[in-house]
Design brief:
CATH class of the largest domain: Alpha Beta
Radius of gyration: 21 Å
Order of helices and strands: EEEEHHEEEEEHEEEHHHE
Shape: globular
Largest sheet: 4 strands, mixed
CATH superfamily of the largest domain: Metalloproteases ("zincins"), catalytic domain
Oligomer: single chain
Strand content: 25-35%
Low-confidence stretches: none
Number of strands: 13
Mean pLDDT: 91
Helix content: 25-40%
Length: 230
Amino acid sequence: MGQITLPGNPPISITLRRSAQARRLSLRLSQLDGRVTLTLPRRLPEAEAIGFLREKEGWLRGHLESRGADVAVGLGARLPFEGRAHEIRAGQGRSVRCHGDALEVPGAAEQVPARLMGWLRAEARDRLAEASDRHSAALGLPYSRLTLRDTRSRWGSCTAEGGLMYSWRLVMAPPEVLDYVAAHEVAHLAQMNHSPAFWAVVEQLYGDWRPARRWLRDEGASLHRYRFGD
């Protein structure tokens, strides 16, 4: 793998990846972290790849602009919580507090990202455990454990042993979206597939799941723009 920079305002950093299986040039922009990867056949000259990039520059810049810039979490930044933007402000006491349209975080400014992430994870666990318990009880099938991660490829998963995993960033989405993901994963306790029977279980647990799924498809990637110093 190599790295090149497409000049301009701003310059774009692009990872070059050669593949023996590739038959043509392939340009990919990750909506999760904004990384740009150009895959090219093993023997294709790099100059040809750069020419291809220049042809695609307008498309690439348009998509990067629509994605929006990453947000460094800290005092003064705005962060979504339960689907609404909140301003991060200095707080008093020992714990983070949600007050109106603000998230008040105590402690030194450099501790704000870690404190806020810890609070968001705790809030996510409470909400996802409640939703998972409720849907599991309605289905009559217990799950074995619940874990949280900061996954980039999926919002949740269910193992064959009944273990549920969720992205803690779901707490930043509207509550109905979080609840849909919980219903989706609990439904896998009954149907470990995405067959019509599976979606019937999701509808039984949640109702019309299509708007929430559409929100995740259209808006979900934006939740990964928020950087907590990682």
